[in-house]
């Protein structure tokens, strides 16, 4: 167990980096980070964001992966093992339960939104064989999709089946095989879209839009936004990285080095997404401010209708979103599946994955109904999906990240930490320990307070 998990192992450091990056790169990266960058100082925001990655994201990411690799089990049981070895309070195991619950809740509404991308991929696939645009009124098309509980449920179900199909097969046959093909596909799709964007004549303007530093826009609110993005983009606080860390080889693999590679790759994908989207946005006079569903599903289709090979671009673009969502969703399901396998028998992975995905699918129906039949229901000023998202993403994840940093920094024996971080010099180890004990918890607490007040 010291060297191998009962669930399987990543075959190499590269596979771990691809899987962790796949978890980190999601829908929010592709449609949220580019507009945040352009609206908050361009290159100045990127520098602030990287500073926040170094001070918030990496210290906690290293801690999560460290727990997983030391335990070689599901997050819950890895925590139990390290708690016992450190003579810590048994109550810390709540971190594992909270992370698994947050993952199930997030997957429930994430699958619904990811279903939108599958729907639009199908529309643009059909448009390849049509002489006239299928989406003539993007606003009406999107509203019709949200208004149809049956159609939303179909795409939500299809996406959940794609997710469970990967997780049910295990680490080597499922997770690794998926990221081995899906992540290169994601990179190739992204590069193809960037190359297309360069042909519009607006690539230089888009680059300036994204990268030209404007430090006058960097305010306290921008720092808070950058910290929040740095925290959430690395899938922290929901035990995903603990689960993936359990499958990470020990020999010749540096946890800090792997963490840096994941953070930089994740940031690079987000910026490349901006270079794919903004040339089109600028070329067709679309307002990029507040990028999100409004930009992606109602504004960009107008450009796709007018541009050469617009149907092919639309298919590639929504295919990219679907792949990004898929690689993220499998990481949400894995921690709970691993625990159920350990609790009820090694041969029960398929049943465990089906059970958890079924629960998340049922919860997802609440989000489906919040767009149509239950659109009038408001709880704490939010619709049903908004409330689930607020509880899981805005409350549980920052709280989980805060507790993980405190647990690793103050409760785990330093001998265990040093054993898992042998490549760190004593000086670097002290710096990381100070960051995970003091700096990261303080900054995550600011994120937590900001989310509650926001």
Features:
mainly alpha; single chain; 454 residues
Put the structure in a nutshell.
By secondary structure, this protein is mainly alpha-helical. The chain has 19 helices and no strands.
Question: In words, what does this structure look like?
Answer:
The chain is mostly helical and about 450 residues long. It contains 19 helices and no strands. Helix 4 runs antiparallel to helix 13, helix 5 packs antiparallel against helix 6 (about 95-125) and helix 9 packs antiparallel against helix 15. The longest helix has about 35 residues, at about 310-345. The N and C termini lie far apart (about 45 Å).
The total of helices stands at 19
Q: Roughly what fraction of the amino acids lie in strands?
A: under 5%
Query: What's the overall average pLDDT, rounded?
Result: 91
Cα(first) to Cα(last) distance is 44 Å
Could you say which structural class the secondary elements and strand pairing correspond to?
Answer: mainly alpha
Q: Radius of gyration from the CA trace? A: 21 Å
Percent of residues in helices: over 70%
| 3D shape | globular
> Helix-strand pattern, N to C?
HHHHHHHHHHHHHHHHHHH
Taking the sheet with the most strands, its summary is: none
């Amino acid at each position: 167990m010291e060297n191998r998990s009962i669930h399987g192992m990543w075959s190499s450091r590269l596979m771990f980096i691809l899987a962790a990056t796949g978890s980190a790169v999601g829908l929010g990266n592709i449609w949220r980070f580019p507009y945040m960058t352009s609206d908050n100082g361009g290159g100045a925001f990127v520098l602030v964001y990287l500073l926040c990655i170094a001070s918030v994201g990496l210290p906690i990411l290293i801690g999560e992966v460290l727990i997983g690799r030391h335990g070689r089990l599901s997050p819950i049981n890895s925590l139990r093992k390290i708690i016992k070895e450190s003579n810590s309070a048994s109550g810390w195991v709540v971190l594992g339960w909270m992370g698994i619950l947050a993952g199930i809740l997030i997957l429930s509404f994430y699958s619904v939104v990811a279903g939108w991308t599958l729907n639009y991929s199908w529309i643009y696939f059909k448009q390849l064989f049509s002489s006239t645009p299928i989406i003539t009124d993007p606003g009406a098309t999107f509203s019709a999709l949200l208004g149809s509980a049956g159609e939303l449920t179909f795409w939500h179900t299809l996406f959940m089946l794609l997710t469970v199909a990967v997780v049910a097969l295990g680490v080597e046959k499922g997770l690794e095989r998926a990221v081995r093909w899906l992540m290169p596909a994601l990179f190739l799709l992204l590069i193809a879209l960037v190359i297309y964007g360069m042909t519009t004549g607006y690539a230089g303007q888009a680059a300036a839009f994204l990268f030209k530093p404007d430090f006058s826009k960097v305010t306290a609110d921008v720092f808070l936004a950058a910290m929040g993005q740095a925290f959430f983009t690395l899938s922290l606080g929901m035990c995903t990285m603990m689960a993936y860390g359990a499958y990470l080889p020990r020999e010749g693999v540096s946890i800090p080095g792997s963490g840096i590679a994941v953070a930089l790759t994740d940031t690079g994908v987000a910026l490349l997404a901006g270079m794919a989207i903004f040339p089109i946005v600028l070329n067709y006079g679309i307002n990029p401010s507040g990028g999100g569903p409004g930009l992606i599903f109602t504004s960009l289709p107008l450009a796709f209708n007018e541009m050469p090979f617009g149907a092919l671009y639309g298919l590639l673009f929504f295919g990219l979103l679907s792949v990004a969502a898929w690689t993220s969703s499998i990481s949400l399901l894995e921690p709970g599946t691993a625990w159920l396998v350990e609790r009820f028998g090694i041969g029960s992975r398929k049943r465990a994955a089906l059970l958890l995905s079924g629960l998340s699918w049922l919860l997802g129906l609440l989000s489906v109904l919040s767009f149509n039949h239950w659109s009038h229901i408001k709880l704490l000023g939010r619709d049903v999906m908004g409330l689930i998202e607020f509880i899981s993403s805005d409350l549980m994840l920052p709280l989980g990240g805060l507790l993980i940093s405190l647990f690793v920094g103050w409760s785990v024996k330093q001998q265990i930490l040093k054993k898992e971080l042998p490549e760190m010099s004593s000086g670097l180890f002290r710096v990381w320990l100070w960051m995970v004990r003091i700096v990261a918890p303080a900054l995550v607490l600011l994120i937590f307070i900001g989310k509650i007040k926001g």
